[in-house]
């Protein structure tokens, strides 16, 4: 007599959506394709000298020239935690001064509450996007 087969398990419920997460306006593929996403390794990290929420990161982006970015993740990470990590950056963002320090790009991070809602709610988790295997700095993210 054949053994009875188990009924398939019910599909897992979808993960909850972060509170306050709203979609941004739709863009075309060509608009998105203009964004240069790259892997970079954090070589050095320190507290921004004149901003409580910022870290100043020195990156190896594979270009042979060190790159500095400022990131508002100081409440979620210490400088020491980031050194050596492979992160994802927007490499073709126009440089700008942030509290007197030049920032040449932006790291990608996820958060469970939008910035403006976080001030009212108080609690906000921020997670830096990293790569899960070793790949050279400068590798293209697509």
Description:
It is a single chain. The chain is globular. It has helices at 29-33, 79-82, 115-121, and strands at 37-47, 55-60, 67-71, 86-90, 96-98, 101-103, 106-107, 109-111, 126-128. It has a domain at 34-128: Nucleic acid-binding proteins (OB fold (Dihydrolipoamide Acetyltransferase, E2P)), CATH 2.40.50.140. The mean pLDDT is 88. Helices cover 11% and strands 29% of the residues. With 142 residues, the protein is mostly beta strands. It is built from three helices and nine strands; from the N terminus they run H-E-E-E-H-E-E-E-E-E-H-E. A five-stranded antiparallel sheet has the order 3-2-1-4-7. It starts with 28 loop residues before the first helix and ends in a 14-residue tail after the last strand.
Give me a quick take on this structure.
This protein has 142 residues and is mainly beta. It has three helices and nine strands, in the order H-E-E-E-H-E-E-E-E-E-H-E.
Radius of gyration: 19 Å
> What composes the largest sheet?
5 strands, antiparallel
CATH superfamily grouping of the domain at 34-128:
Nucleic acid-binding proteins
**Class derived from helix and strand content:** mainly beta
Low-confidence stretches: none
Average the pLDDT over all residues and give the rounded result.
88
What amount of the residues lies in strands? 25-35%
Q: What CATH architecture of the domain at 34-128 do you see? A: Beta Barrel
* Envelope shape: globular
Count the helices. How many?
3
SSE pattern, N- to C-terminal: HEEEHEEEEEHE
């Amino acid at each position: 007599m054949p053994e009875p087969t188990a009924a398939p398990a019910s599909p897992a419920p979808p993960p909850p959506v972060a509170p306050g997460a709203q979609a941004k306006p739709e863009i075309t593929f060509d608009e998105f394709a203009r964004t240069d996403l790259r892997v970079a390794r954090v070589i050095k990290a320190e507290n921004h000298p004149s901003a409580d929420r910022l870290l100043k990161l020195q990156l190896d982006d594979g270009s042979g020239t060190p790159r500095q970015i400022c990131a508002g993740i100081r409440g979620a990470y210490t400088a020491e935690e980031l050194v050596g990590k492979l992160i994802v950056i927007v490499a073709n963002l126009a440089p700008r001064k942030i509290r007197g320090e030049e920032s040449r790009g932006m790291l990608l991070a996820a958060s469970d509450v939008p910035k403006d809602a976080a001030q009212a709610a108080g609690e906000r988790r921020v997670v830096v996007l990293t790569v899960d295997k070793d790949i050279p700095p400068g590798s293209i993210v697509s």
